[in-house]
Every structure is written in C-alpha cells, then in structure tokens.
Amino acid sequence: MDGAAPSKRKTRVQQLEREGEVAADFLETLLDIADLDGDIDVDVDGDRAAVAIVDSEEGRVPRRLVGTDGKVLEALQELTRLAVQVETGERSRLMLDVAGHRAERRTALVELAHRSIAEVKETGEQRSLEPMSAFERKVVHDEVSAAGLVSESEGVEPRRHIVILPA
C-alpha cells in the first residue's frame, strides 16, 4: 500500500482543526462584543469540526444562545459556518453546541429512536415522528440504520420529519 491515504487523512484532520480554530475566533469575538460569558472547546468529531460554547470560570453560558427549540443555536451555527467559509474558502459542516444542549438532545433522540424502532418491529407498521431539524434527523436516521431498518425524511422545512419503515 502506498502512504497517500494516511497523509490525506492527516490533511483532512488538519483542515477540520483549522475550521475549529476559525470558528472559535469568530465565537470568542461574538461573545466579547455581546459581553457574554463562555469558553470555547474545539474538537474533531468524525468528519466535521465540533465547537462548543461551555460555562467558564467567570460564569454560565446564557441559555438564550440556545433559544426555543434550539433555533438560536441553529442560527448561530449557520453564522459560524459562514464565517469559516469566508476565512477558509471552503464550505464547512462544523457542528456547534451551546451549554451541552446538542449533547442532551442527542441522548433524548437516541432514546426516542430506540422506542420507535421497537414499536415498528413489534407492530410491523411504519411510524412517523414529529418534525425535526437536520441535526436531529441525522441522529435518528443513524440509529434506525444501525438497527437494520430504513427511514426516510418527508415533508418540507419546518415540518420535515422522519418515517421509520418496517423491515
């Protein structure tokens, strides 16, 4: 085997780390301008940069940065992705979390997916879930796939939802 794959992988990780750094700089500036507390954590999670605004020693991250149903968080993520794209020239898929909201939501979605999967397997009937954001749908689709079933997204934003199909 040639050594191209490891160096290509390293280059991709470096690119994601750079995205995280750019995002962190943008978010730190934004927090400073708004005079809000919070520290920035940067990581690489699979194939995307993961950036989180977390509580700092100075104080808690204002939960209004999450907003109702995560709407402010989604908007802040899009702004951050745009800032990264302007700086790097590349479209970013970075994932932003604020005060652990996405981590908590992911846990709840996995539980919902498992209950819904069990129901579909037991009844043999498809199950439609409530409308979800793209992040939320991805979490559920991954769980359904891992369970050996198929799911589809149906509808149009903001009413786009998942349908889990029986085997």
Would you mind describing this structure in some detail?
With 167 residues, the chain is an alpha+beta fold. The chain folds into two domains: 4-99, 2-Layer Sandwich (GMP Synthetase, Chain A, domain 3), CATH 3.30.300; 104-165, R3H-like domain (Ribosomal Protein S8, Chain: A, domain 1). It is 51% helix and 18% strand. The chain has helices at residues 4-34, 71-88, 101-123, 134-146; strands at residues 39-45, 48-54, 95-98, 127-128, 150-154, 161-165. Strands 1-2-3 form a three-stranded mixed sheet, with helices on both faces. Strands 4-6-5 form a three-stranded antiparallel sheet. Helix 1 (4-34) crosses helix 2 (71-88). The longest helix is centred in the first third of the chain and has 31 residues, at 4-34. It is globular. 26% of the residues are buried. The model has no long low-confidence stretch (mean pLDDT 92).
Keywords summarizing the entry:
alpha+beta, 51% helix, 2 domains, globular, 3-stranded antiparallel β-sheet, Ribosomal Protein S8, Chain: A, domain 1, single chain, GMP Synthetase, Chain A, domain 3, 3-stranded mixed β-sheet, 167 residues
